[in-house]
Amino acid sequence: MYSAGRFRKTMVLGAAIFLLSAEVPAFAEPLVAHHATYILSLAPDNKNSQITGAEGVMVYDMKKTCDGWATDLKLKFVMSLDNGENRDFETSQVTWESTDGSAYRYTIKNGYGGQTDQLRGEAKTNAAAGGKGTATADLPTRTEGELPAGVLFPVAHTRALLEKAEAEESVFTTEFFDGTSSTEAMEVSALIGAGEKDWSGLPKPLPELAGKTSYPIGLAFYIGDKGDGTPDTEQVERLYEDGIIGTISFSLGSIKIRAVLDSLQVDPDSGC
User: Fold this and answer.
1) Which of 3, 72, 87, 246 is the most buried (most CB within 10 A)?
2) Are 213 and 196 in contact (CB under 8 A)?
3) Are 34 and 62 in contact (CB under 8 A)?
4) CA 13 – CA 60 distance, rounded (Å)
5) Is-contact 232 221, C-beta < 8 A?
């Protein structure tokens, strides 16, 4: 759910973070506030021959406010090139999403090779309009757009993924918006694997995850009409029942990165 995102476009995360724009959910909130640190490396299937080595760190905070969820993601990745040079990639994503999934705000900053860009905007959905919405960006330029009915923001998308996973549904496709594609929504198709309690795929045990069920999920993101069925970007993640991501593989352009959970702190209930 690192927005859950879960990376999208340049970096589609999301978290994992990620129900429909209607009323406040009547079910118990499955997600937990947490602080997580991830170690980054080249993914095993990386095919960019110009990159000879890479390392980095990603820090993700998800906090419950009385009216929604606030997330803060920071990532730095250093790549070694075959000509002996190093290149840094940095990004930060700060978002807020209302508890009922009807409102979303974001600020995204990316830096690479001495260049930086910034995205900032907000989006809302309207239950009275059948769940359709509007998106407004003020950086890098002032832009407005319409969002399709049923569009999900990152936190709501994560909730929906968990709902489908717990119901043992293996395929889930929806419209998705997180601001990484200006004011345009994208289609996200998820393949959800069987859940496993106490998954052993992390390099070290984390007591906060003891007894928890997690699911392997593959996500394909499509921007605009895709007649050939080729996604703009893909990611693979291990999503726990409380919204925490254990591992996630994603792309930065042609470079494939893998993030592995290294430390975790689950925060107490805010009391809201």
Assistant:
1) 3
2) yes
3) yes
4) 11
5) yes
Give the residue from 172, 161, 214 showing the smallest Cα distance to 19: 161
- Non-local CB neighbours of 151 within 8 Å, separated by 6+ positions: 21, 125, 131, 132, 133, 174, 175, 176, 177, 185
pLDDT tens for the chain, 272 residues: list them. Answer: 554 343 444 443 433 333 222 233 444 688 999 999 999 998 887 777 777 778 899 999 999 998 999 999 999 999 888 787 888 889 999 999 999 999 999 999 998 877 889 999 999 998 877 789 999 999 999 999 999 999 999 999 999 999 999 999 999 999 999 999 889 999 999 999 999 999 999 999 999 999 999 999 999 999 877 556 788 889 999 999 999 999 999 887 778 889 999 999 998 776 66
* Dist. CA 204–CA 163, nearest whole Å: 28
Which of 134, 136, 101 minimizes the C-alpha distance to 120? 136
| Whole-number Cα distances in Å, 69 to 20, 147, 193, 208 | 15, 21, 27, 20
Strand-pair category, 103-112 with 86-98 = antiparallel
Which pLDDT belongs to residue 103?
Answer: 97
Task: List Cα–Cα distances, 114 to 8, 42, 89, 90, 253, in angstroms.
Answer: 22, 21, 9, 10, 17
Q: What is the DSSP letter of 241?
A: T
Distance CA 81, CA 54 (A): 9
What Cα–Cα distance (Å) separates residue 133 from each residue in 74, 99, 125, 136, 171? 28, 16, 4, 10, 25
Tell if the pTM clears 0.70, that is, is over it: yes
3 state DSSP class of 209: helix
CA–CA separation, 179 and 194 (whole Å): 30
